[in-house]
């Protein structure tokens, strides 16, 4: 007999919301988190796009969401998940989550393990995270109104976010280490028509510098080694992201890059296993969309369990 009706892997906004909705539906819920609740949300400074609040912080919202989930009776446990074994005739009627110690089992699982932004391997990239270095133009673009900022990257996301930032910044410097962009031609054509964007092709970031916050970006030409500086208070990195999905079995279908594929109910290719938030193959990865995913996944897990009865 399962100790829990629902096990949630990850305690970011998707997992925390799923825990609250699962408990409100009367399910026994266990949330597994490797470190502290909040996930990538913890790394966000000021949050201005959470509905109903003019401003909050990642820490404050994380603590409030966890406290709310706990108030409904969700149980939390710090654990590193190393694998997931789908239910089968051989393994039994419940899915098994592999952690240090005995496996944890439940008939329903929500994978809300999130994703991470790839950073740069240069001085300052990690030191200034949240203090001028950002991975989200939608989240942080408004902090740099009428200032010059830099965007690093050459794919569709980098170019599209650079154009978005021109709604706030006075000028956007687009830095890409290659001589041409990887983005679609249509996106490049749109970029070329934007007078507020200055391109720096063939340059890599040598260092991100400043005292308490970002003050400048030091660039080095990949071929000649020539260096130059950009005086900018904000640097947006779009050099790729990846999901925390390596622990999932091959039975769970993934899109290129490891993103988990779900149906409209957020169920994966394995019955009773759902995915929510940034780990999922989706078009927008924001705190608010992750929370919405968590609510939908939890309620569909409830309906799945009701049908199973």
Task: Report a brief summary of the structure.
The chain is built from six helices and 20 strands. It is an alpha/beta fold. The radius of gyration is 21 Å and the shape is elongated.
Question: Strands, helices and their partners?
Answer:
Blueprint lengths: L5 E4 L3 H12 L4 E5 L12 E2 L8 E2 H14 L3 E4 L4 E3 L9 E4 L5 E3 L1 E4 L3 E3 L15 E2 L2 H4 L7 E5 L3 H10 L5 E6 L8 H8 L4 E5 L1 E8 L3 E8 L5 E4 L3 E4 L3 E3 L29 E3 L11 H22 L1
Parallel strand pairs: 1-2, 1-9, 2-5, 9-20, 11-18, 12-13, 12-18, 13-14
Antiparallel strand pairs: 3-4, 6-7, 7-8, 10-19, 15-16, 16-17
What would your notes on this structure say?
By secondary structure, the chain is of the alpha/beta class. It has two domains: 6-116 and 241-308, 3-Layer(bba) Sandwich (FAD/NAD(P)-binding domain); 133-237, 3-Layer(bba) Sandwich (FAD/NAD(P)-binding domain). It has six helices and 20 strands. The chain has helices at residues 13-24, 58-71, 137-140, 156-165, 185-192, 287-308, and strands spanning 6-9, 29-33, 46-47, 56-57, 75-78, 83-85, 95-98, 104-106, 108-111, 115-117, 133-134, 148-152, 171-176, 197-201, 203-210, 214-221, 227-230, 234-237, 241-243, 273-275. It has a five-stranded parallel β-sheet, with helices on one face. A five-stranded parallel β-sheet has the order 11-18-12-13-14, with helices on one face. It has a three-stranded antiparallel β-sheet with strand order 6-7-8, with no helix packed on it. Helix 1 packs parallel to helix 2.
Which quaternary structure do these chains form? single chain
Q: How many helical elements? A: 6
Number of strands: 20
How would you spell out the order of helices and strands? EHEEEHEEEEEEEHEHEHEEEEEEEH
**What structural class is derived from the secondary structure elements?**
alpha/beta
Contiguous runs where pLDDT drops below 50 for at least 5 residues: none
Strand content: 25-35%
Helix amount: 10-25%
Give the N-terminus to C-terminus distance in angstroms: 14 Å
